[in-house]
Fold these 2 entries.
Entry 1:
Amino acid sequence: MKFIKILFIFSFFIFSGQTKADEALNWLEKEIDIILDAYKKDLSNENRFKIIEETINNNFAGTGIAKFIAGESWKKASKNTKQDYIKNFKRHLALNIASMMRGYTDQKYELSNSQIDKKNNIILVDMEIFSDTGSVVVTWRVKKSKDKYFVIDLIVADISLVVTKRSEFNSMLKKVDNDLSKFNNVLSDQNKISYQKITEQ
């Protein structure tokens, strides 16, 4: 009887975990489709980017990612500087995603697998993107907070977007003596250039 009880509890946790993983997969599919649908509609590049930026801001853990990437520079910055940096970073992230999407030509994708990473308390969702030359697998790292899912990282060919960005930003921050206020000016100017490229017809 005791063995059956233990088995029942064990089965419950497995089922509960898989349900959570499936929920994350369904949520992610819906949000990805919002972005892809923007490319299927007859929209201006500016309006298309607005959809992408809103979707990214709503579903990526932008503030947490921004703080991690800023590293030691974050601790030394003022409250207003931090707020400006988060705003600049979120736009930078949206512009990066929009830039990657510029080559989109109605490729098919499939969310093929979702599982719980118990060690890090996150959900991993694999997405396979198909093209004429083959396919590539992107792994989304998703975390649930306050009954809402958020993307915390993207892994492409075993390369983390967040880790790559941290390395890139660290190099840029060193050029301004790790002053986040000065870095905001650099990032803001970079965003303006990227935005012009993204929205040009």
Note: Helices lie at 2-40, 45-59, 62-70, 72-76, 79-101, 161-174, 180-199.
Entry 2:
Amino acid sequence: MKNQKNSRKTVQEMEAPVVDLSIDYSQVDTDPHAVRPMGREYPKSRSQMPEKQLFEFAEYHAQDAERIGYSNYSYWKSVWANFLKKKSAVVMSVIFICLFIFTFVASAIGKYDIHMAPDPLNRAYISPNAEFWFGTNGIGQDYWAQVWYATRASILLAVLVSIGQITLGVIIGLIWGYVRRLDFFFTELYNLIDNIPTIIYMTLIALMVGKSMVTMGIAMIGFGWLATARNVRNLVFMYRDREYNLASRCLGTKLSRILFRNIFPYLISVIILRLALAIPGTIAYETTLTYLGLMDIMLPSLGNLLAAARAVFPRAAFTLWFPAAIVSVITITFYLVGNAFSDACDPRNHV
């Protein structure tokens, strides 16, 4: 009976899979004298092993293969995420948007129209009160309506002129920096315009062509592209002879495609910064032209109001406070937002 029990136990142990932890299975395939688990046949060397035991073919799926090179990175999403990290720039941008929207709302909630003068003789330069929230100007017009209409007009003028200057400057700067045979022409053109004060050109245009807002706006675009073009030209020199541009030229890629697909993306941060600084600069320049009498604006603008307020500042200081405060907010806003957005557009700051 005892022998029968031992034989049964031996059969059960042989049938059950046994894992011996003392065996080093990593050496089984290479060491012919190594102890091998039962149930598997091992030849003396790998060269004698069957192909099915050596290799196993992997299945191919096109979708899985595409996922290997897939990335969730998006340039503009990264730009927006980095911009939102600058809390001060976000707050100032919200303030500017609310300010611009309010220029349209202010005319609806105001009591008087910009052209209406209730009593020119008795209501000139009245201080702010319950009836006239910002006081009145020299002919008795409501200064509230004047200031907010001027803010809207100046912002629209500054944005349009700045976009025109930056666009023209970027196009000329790209061509100037990439096409070497045009470098001499644009350099001499830059020196010709830059060495003469711009105010002289603006004075000649105002006297010979006219002082309208459209004429002077086009003139500001015509002479305001110089700094942007010079900056872009210097940057293009850095990227012009890099390997991918040399390869594009060898493949016969069009000049316009090389400029706007290979080089232009590297200039976005610089362009955004110059645009942000050009908008308050245009408002300041418009103020100067209006003060000098070179810009005839029939409807109020911030430059027009500031020019008129300087003459009566000791008598009616409030006429300078409100437009000056709005110009200051616009300048600080675009400075902070422009720097923050410029840093966010730099791919080196993306994670």
Note: The longest helix spans residues 143-178.
